[in-house]
Amino acid sequence: MIIAENLTRRGALTGVTIDIAPGETLAVVGESGSGKTALARLLLRLDRPTSGGLPADGVHGLFPDLDPRMTIADSVAEPMRVHRRHDPAWRDELLTLVGLGPGDGRRRPADLPAPELRRAALARGLALRPGVLVLDEPVADLDPSARAELTALLRAVRERLGTAYLYLTRDVADVRQLAERVAVLYRGGIVERGPAQAVFEAPAHPYTQALLSAVPVADPRRERRRRRVPLAEERPDAPAGGCRFRHRCPKFAAELTTLQRGKCSAEAPAPRPRAGGAEAACHYASVATVW
Ligand code: SF4
């Protein structure tokens, strides 16, 4: 199902198409400023696109901040009331589904610790039974065990309700165990996308390789032996035209011939199919092992 088609917002996103199957998790990975939040705001109709198509309905979001004056149960029920679909049985079922008890439903946000609040926000996000739930850094600011628990809960909820997730994150480690497909966003455009196995295990775009090479692995010996792909700092005066990544690209800086660099400077790379059913927008994409 296509939920965004050729979506453009001036200064933030350029021609982004997002398709997602029922019950699937698509991870959109990128640094701060890559356009993730702009994409979420457009999909949730909080902003209007400069051009491009959005779905008629069925895409909702998880908003971690609940109204401090309302009880948790009322916060979960509020979207149903607003849409005249009040259903107390479904509200209670949602609270149970996310691991909150009836006592928690009577409490207010200030009375709950952060992990439980995140569960309550998930229940509220599911209140109208959306086909797609947009999760913008849902485990950010939680400690490692709460992150793991919330990720396990997201997986269980997806299996039970068939909800698809569009999971936006800057931290690849958050989605490695959850996502079936991945799109890597850089300066408002998708530079690599495909099945999670292909993109995570054999990335072909230099930006994806740099992002993944910065994710620590648990085994200290492997960690020491790993090759880091260096990534130059973002620059506000980045050159326009051609490949928008070239001022940071390690391949452009160290591997390409003058002729090849000329092509990167002159021509914006279009997405091209590569092995494993993925595609990468790089003139000189080549698979590398980074783990
Ligand atoms: S097109 Fe050139 S500059 Fe852009 S990512 Fe590929 S190698 Fe680097």
UniProtKB/TrEMBL annotation:
PROSITE patterns given for it?
A: ABC_TRANSPORTER_2 (PS50893)
Instruction: Output the superkingdom of the source species.
Output: Bacteria
Q: What's in the keyword line of the UniProt record?
A: ATP-binding, Nucleotide-binding, Transport
From the Swiss-Prot or TrEMBL record, what is one GO molecular function term? ATP hydrolysis activity
Entry keyword annotation includes Metal-binding: no
Q: Where is the ABC transporter domain?
A: 2-212
Give the UniProt record's GO annotations in the biological process aspect: peptide transport; transmembrane transport
Keyword ATP-binding appears in the UniProt entry:
yes
Concerning its family, UniProt says: Belongs to the ABC transporter superfamily.
Q: What is this protein called?
A: ABC transporter ATP-binding protein
What is the species of this protein?
A: Actinorhabdospora filicis
